[in-house]
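Support request from a user on the community tier.

User writes: "When I paste my structure tokens into the form, the page sometimes reloads and wipes my input. The last time it worked, I copied everything first. Here is what I submitted, just in case something in the input itself triggers the reload:"
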């Protein structure tokens, strides 16, 4: 049942985002060890990763007597909240589009290269595509989000934003092709659906036959499902329906993800709770 394809830090972030946050926000180190053992992660690797995440400001240590608990810092919680919103509440692209584009241009000095790289990366996360070297474009007006990003990076003197419509000499589809690799994103969606469809059908067939799903297995499957899907909300620009290819699988993949995630939720939560509430004394009797 174990898998070593997911880094321990990513596993821990998923644990907090999908499970721990809803249960008080902290978890015993022994429970982390027990849960991550399902993914082939050793106790030493868990402790090393937790220590590194604490030093990096992602986790905060809390002691109750001789027992160590860990909780997300405010910085880490904000990051996970933003990620969860992208995954479970993606922007809608079904409303009529007014054919306007939001443009971001910049001229950021070389001595602020780190801020410039962060700015570019977060523009992509917001669904902007690079139309030209320093011109980024979105089919959605996100002035408020961009203003917050620019202020956080202290780049106000170097960034300009515009709202515009295309007048010529190319089509709107040409703009899309220049700015985003939709073919690669769509291929990723198709691969995601194909990879998890067989497992989803297996769960449904077992439930229809009256068979109970293995809780630990559902816990691992749900982890793998989230890990494979989480990159899409940060790659997909969520373009209006008239701008995506006829065979676009984005909506299908999102609906499939939510359906399969929900199917696994009850048994996966039961397994997590059985380990989450485990005491150090109970764990010593299991090992």
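"...and here is what came back when it finally went through:"
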């Amino acid at each position: 049942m174990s898998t070593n394809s997911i880094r321990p830090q990513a596993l821990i972030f998923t644990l907090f985002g999908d499970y721990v946050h809803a249960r008080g926000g902290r978890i015993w180190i022994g429970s982390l060890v027990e849960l991550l053992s399902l993914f082939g992660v050793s106790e030493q690797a868990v402790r090393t990763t937790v220590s590194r995440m604490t030093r990096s400001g992602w986790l905060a240590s809390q002691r109750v007597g001789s027992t160590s608990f860990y909780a997300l810092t405010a910085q880490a919680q904000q990051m996970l909240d933003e990620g969860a919103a992208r995954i479970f509440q993606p922007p809608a692209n079904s409303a009529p589009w007014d054919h306007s584009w939001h443009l971001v241009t910049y001229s950021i000095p070389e001595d602020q290269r780190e801020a410039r790289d962060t700015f570019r990366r977060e523009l992509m996360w917001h669904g902007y595509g690079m139309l030209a070297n320093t011109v980024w474009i979105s089919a959605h007006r996100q002035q408020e989000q961009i203003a917050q990003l620019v202020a956080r990076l202290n780049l106000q003197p170097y960034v300009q934003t515009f709202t515009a419509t295309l007048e010529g000499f190319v089509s709107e589809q040409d703009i899309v092709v220049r700015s985003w690799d939709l073919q690669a994103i769509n291929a990723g969606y198709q691969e995601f659906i194909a990879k998890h469809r067989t497992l989803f059908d297996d769960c449904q067939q077992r439930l229809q036959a009256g068979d109970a799903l293995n809780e630990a297995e559902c816990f691992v499957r749900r982890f793998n499902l989230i890990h494979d899907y989480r990159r899409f909300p940060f790659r997909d620009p969520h373009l209006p329906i008239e701008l995506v290819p006829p065979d676009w699988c984005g909506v299908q993949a999102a609906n499939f993800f939510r359906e399969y995630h929900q199917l696994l939720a009850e048994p996966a939560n039961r397994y997590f709770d059985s380990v989450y509430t485990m005491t150090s004394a109970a764990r010593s009797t299991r090992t």
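Agent notes: The reload is a front-end session timeout and is unrelated to the input. Residues 280-287 have pLDDT under 50 and may be disordered. The longest helix spans residues 182-208. Escalated to web team.
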